[in-house]
Amino acid sequence: MPSYIIPYKPRKHQAQLHRKVKRFNVLPCHRRFGKSYFSLAETLKKCFECELPNPRYFIISATYSQVKKIHWDNLKFLTKNIKGTQYHETELRCDMVGGRRIQLLGADGSSVDSLRGIYADGVILDETQLLHRDLLNKVLRPALVDRHQMDKKSGWMIAIGTPSGHNFFYDLYMKNKSHKDWFVKKYTVEDTKIIPKDELGSLKSMMSPEEYATEFLCDFDAGVVGGIYTKSMQVVDDEKRVTTVPHIPELPVTTFSDIGFRDAFSIVFIQKVGSAIHVIDHLEHAGESIEYYANKLKEKPYTYDNHYAGHDIVVTELGSGKSRQEIASNLGWFIQPVLKLKIEEGINALRLSLKRCYFDKDKCDYLINCLKQYRWKKNALGEQTSTPHHGTESNSCDAMRYMATGLNESSDWSSKLNYGPSGIV
Q1: Please, what is the angle between helix 12-20 and helix 35-49, to 10°?
Q2: Where are the alpha helices (DSSP H) in 50-101?
Q3: Which of 62, 277, 294, 305 can bridge 331 by disulfide, Cβ–Cβ 3.0-4.6 Å?
Q4: Pairing outcome for strands 335-337 and 357-360
Q5: Which residues does 45 contact at the CB level (< 8 Å), separation at least 6?
Q6: What is the pLDDT of residues 106-149, one digit of tens each?
Q7: How far apart are CA 155 and CA 342, in angstroms?
Q8: Is the CB of residue 270 less than 8 Å from the CB of residue 362?
Q9: Under a CB-based contact definition with an 8 Å cutoff, are residues 167 and 369 in contact?
Q10: What's the pLDDT at 286?
Q11: What confidence score (pLDDT) does residue 405 get?
């Protein structure tokens, strides 16, 4: 195989990183680190080192538009000197000599689901803080197995991004520091020193301390800017209401679900104990059928009184001609839609509910982090809007919002109570 020279000269910190990567890598990096060029160059290097037939590599970001904007032009630029290279604009696919292929994918579409059952020689997770954990656990990690068995240099993964609180990226970073097959390292501006001090001083003066700590010091624990439930959850922590919350067999369990299509499907399990709300369990996955969740509910050791979900559960699906409520009902899972409120009203209702909530620290750890990370969306000018940002934390927060609505948590005591038929799985 002939050698190729690509138009990429790594900076000192990037060159060091190219030498240190292992099979699995978690790399929280500050803004302007050069993550996209590093990722593409590392992928191309491994692509032409691979001796297996038809190597396949995937670079994945949260959305199709994001991965295209960040990587597509750079990929074409870096591969322009490789003879015979073909570009497929719609599929964001780069086909090269010897059957080599690099493809860009957005986690918001069906393209990622198409990876189920096929192989990958290497995967880049870009802006990992915006991705859902099931993407790696259920889709990508199995895809890396076969090629690694054939060649120990294949079947690798790099998760790179900038911290944004405690989420999937944080879990990858914290849980894999001591594993021998993993290279886990944080790169702050103090480590790379690539941004001049006067520029950093200017950035500090323009940004809040939380923003600067997150974006340039890679601080996973910096407060979430524009957090919707930040103050409410701080009170929950201060009052030590994240604790061991056991299931009480004598009391019924009520569930509240946010039922997604390609998004995650989130279910919150609560028990009302006097005036307190015990959040005893939480279930969230992506890419599974309604039947999967109906069976999961049956496996739990709970006696249910009611099941609730968002009002869109009654909307008829184009494919089946049935609503998701009907599909669930046929499986013995009788779900009622909660009252439809404006999203701001639902958020205020949940803020009231959180004053009475106790969370099980083990079963609800992911849910708690989602509530802490939920934040307002920013517009193109960087200004905070009145619309919540849609991210991996949204589904769990929506399920909790439905809980507040279903329990009729409202400051308007004239609101109509909603009594629906009971359903027990």
Answers
A1: 40
A2: 64-67, 73-78
A3: 294
A4: unpaired
A5: 18
A6: 887 655 666 777 899 999 999 998 888 888 888 899 999 999 99
A7: 46
A8: no
A9: yes
A10: 81
A11: 92
pLDDT in the model for residue 373: 87
Identify the pLDDT of residue 423. Answer: 47
Cα 328 to Cα 306: distance, rounded to the nearest angstrom: 13
Catalogue the E-assigned strands of 302-345.
304-309, 335-337
| Buried b or exposed e, range 152-172, using 16+ CB within 10 angstroms | ebbbbbbbbbbbbbbbbbbeb
Which of 167, 208, 218 is closest to 392 using CA atoms?
A: 167
Please give the single-letter amino acid code of residue 71. Answer: H
Look at the block and give the residue holding tokens 């195989």.
1
Task: Choose among 17, 40, 23: nearest CA to 156.
Answer: 23
Strand partners, 308: 256, 336
Instruction: Name residue 26's beta-bridge partners.
Output: 159, 184
Q: Which residues of the chain have pLDDT under 50?
A: 409-425
CA distance to 68, 121, 180, 335, 366, per residue, from 75 (Å): 10, 18, 31, 47, 35
Q: Scanning the structure block, which residue is given the tokens 């591969």?
A: 79
The three state secondary structure string of 147-214 is HHHHCCCCCEEEEEECCCCCCHHHHHHHHCCCCCCEEECCECHHHHCCCCHHHHHHHHHHCCHHHHHH
CA distance 316 to 325: 9
Tell me how far CA of residue 299 lies from CA of 62, 199, 296, 325, 335, in angstroms.
32, 56, 5, 20, 17
Amino acid found at 362: D
Could you tell me the two tokens for 79? 């591969």
Q: Which of 359, 351, 356 is nearest to 281 (CA)?
A: 359
Instruction: Tell how strand 93-96 and strand 86-88 pair up.
Output: antiparallel
Four-point Cα dihedral 118, 73, 28, 188, nearest 10: 160
pLDDT (tens digit per residue) in 281-329? 999 988 788 999 999 999 999 999 999 999 888 887 756 778 889 999 9
Question: By C-alpha distance, which of 194, 126, 156 is closest to 52?
Answer: 156
Burial class (CB in 10 A: 0-12, 13-18, 19+), 22: middle
Residue 38 tokens, joined: 């590093």
Residue 383: HSE in the Cβ half-sphere, 13 Å Cα cutoff? 3
**Which tokens belong to 166?**
């405690």
